[in-house]
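FAQ: What does a ligand-bound record look like?

Like this one, built around D-serine:
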Amino acid sequence: MNVKISGDALFVRNAVEKHHKLFENSLPMIASENLISPLAREMLVSDFHDRYAEGAPGKRYYQGNIYVDEVELKTIELAKKLFKAEYADVRPISGTVANLGILFGLAKPGDKITTCNVSDGAHISTAKFGAVGVRGCISVPYPWDVENMNLDVDKTIKLLKEVRPKIALFGRSVFLFPTPLKELRATLEEIGCYVWYDGAHVMGLIAGGKFQDPFREGAEVMSGSTHKTLPGPQHGIILANPRDEKMRTKLYYGVFPGVLSNHHLHAMAALAIALAEYIQFGKEYAAQIVKNAKALGQAMYERGFNVLCEHIGFTESHTLAVDVSKIGGGAEVVEDLERANIITNKNLMPWDDVSMAMNPTGIRLGVQELTRIGMKEGEMREVAELLKKVAIDKKRPEVVKKEVIELKRGFNRIHYCFNEDVEAYKYYKLV
Ligand code: DSN
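The answer part, i.e. the structure of the complex:
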C-alpha cells in the first residue's frame, strides 16, 4: 500500500525539483563543480548505496561484497591507468577526506607542512583551520608571486631549505597555472620530504594531458575530489608512486581505519564509470576546457574586466580569477550575477586578508561545466557579454536573465560521455 507523501517530504522534493529547473536555466560557472554523466548517475541510485564494505577486496569484514569487490578492483585499475600511477585508493569519500587520510598516514602532530596560503588560492584543508590543523600539523606558506599567480620559485627554494618540512604540499582552488615542480625538484629531493600534489581542481586536465603531469615532475602522492574537471561523482581519490612499501602501507591505513569506515560504494561505482568515460573522451574534453577558459578570459578582458594574468594568457586551466574591486566587490558582483542566473563565487585575491572571505575583492570563474554541455569559444564570447551587462554596465539582472535563459536553451545535453542524448539537469521522479 502506498501511503500519501507527507507535506514535509513533498516540501523537500519540490525544492529539489525547483533547483533542477534553476540550473537548467542558468550558466553554472563555479570552478569546483561539474555534471556527472547519465551512466555514472545511474550508479548513485543503485543498491551499492545501501551496503557496507569495510576492509579490502577479498578481505572484508562484511559478507555480500562479491560484486563490490569486482567494482572496487576495476575502479583502482582504471584510476591507475588514467593517471599512470602505481597505487590508487578509490575509497575517500571527498577531496578533504582524501587529504585527511594522507595527513593521518604520512604526518604526525607537530610536523611542518609547506603549503600555499588560502588567499593565494589554496584549499581550506591545507590551512591551520582545516585538515592540516585538525591533524595538529603546522602549515608554513610559500612565498607568492602575485603578478604570475604562482609560487615565487627562488624564495620557495630558500624557504624549503630553512623549514625542511615533513611534507611539501602543492595544490590550489584558484589553480590558474601549473606549479613549478620541476624547478623545485632538486631541492625537494635533497630535503627528502614527501611531495604531495592536491590536484582536485585539475584532475581532468592532468588526465587529459592538458596540464602538468605531477608524477612525472616529482610528486609522490596526489589527492583530489573527483567532480571538478574530472566530471565524476562527489567523491575523493588518492594516487601515488610510493617511495617504498612503508609509505604504501601508511597511505592505505591512513584512509581506513584512519579517517573513514565505509567508503560510499555507489559513488565508487560512479567513479569507475566516470574514469572509463574519461579514458575515451577525456583528451578532447580537457583540450576544449582550456581553449574555452582562455577565450573567456580574452573576451572579458576586451570588455573591460580586470582578469588576472593577461600577460601570460589568463590561465592554463579551467579557471579565471577576476579583480572586481572597482565594480562593486566580490559579494555584490556574484549576487547580481545570481539574479541573472549566472552562478559564480566570490573569492579571496592574494592581497585580501582571510577575514574578508565574505566580501573579498575577487570572483572566480570556471568553464568546465559550460564545456561539458557543449559550449565552445563562440559561446564564451556571448557569456563574457552577459557578464559585462550585469557586472560592468550594471543592467538590471532580471532583464539579463532572459538572455541567459535563451542562450542556455541550446545547451542542455551532457557531452564527452556515453549517452550524449540524455538531458542534463533533468529531475527523474518516481511518481
Ligand atoms: N570548496 C571547493 C572549491 O570551490 O574549490 C573545493 O573543495
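Follow-up question: can I read anything off the structure? Yes, for example: The CA atoms of residues 220 and 243 lie 7 Å apart.
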